[in-house]
Amino acid sequence: MRAPVSDLPLVLDDVSLQAGATAILDRLSLTITPGAPTLIVGPNGAGKTTLLRLFMGLTSPSTGRITWGGRANSTLARRAILFQRPVMLRRTAAGNVDYALAQAGTPHKLRAERVAALLEQVGLSDLALRPARRLSGGEQQRLALARALARDPEILLLDEPTANLDPAATRSVEEIVLLAAHSGIKIVMASHDLGQVRRLAGDVVFLVRGALCERGPVTDFLDNPNTPEAAAFLRGDLVI
User: Which domains does the chain have, with CATH numbers?
Assistant: First the structure.
């Protein structure tokens, strides 16, 4: 029996991305492997969102090479991405998940059971028939997670999914993310919240001006940074 296609390891080899004369990402070499969540941190404009888009295959590098499981072809994807402000379809919560399952190729006869399971997984079973656009911000983000999980991803890319949420909603989203990680899904997440980084991360990627400034286990990064830029960032100083 042939082994299932894997998108891991995800490898960036000397990748740069230019926008005119501006370097968005600068000669970035990075490998993402299975295991605990990897969190991407850095000051505003460091390139965190752009890096996630490259991982997803939504953007191509100006120079360098990206491979997914040794393949340069990004179309054989077991990846899903969740942006900071997800767009809700004009359907119920259940309808949003059903649409995601249909797009993922789930047979129609299996979708109702899978919709129910995904809504239960994100704590929205009681709101299955509510219009998605009438959900609270935290509920919408959990619904967006259910839609992402409908793709049965090997890699789940998250772009500051709790940036606009209150502490209770943030905790709910983090619990879902951790459960996904414990199920074997590789989480790669951008975050500006250092408390969240400590709660979730196995390792940290620290970007400054589109370049990899530091990478290592979360406790090493937070408690014993190796670079002046990381130390300044952790103190709350401006890093430009």
Answer: 10-85+154-235 (3.40.50.300)
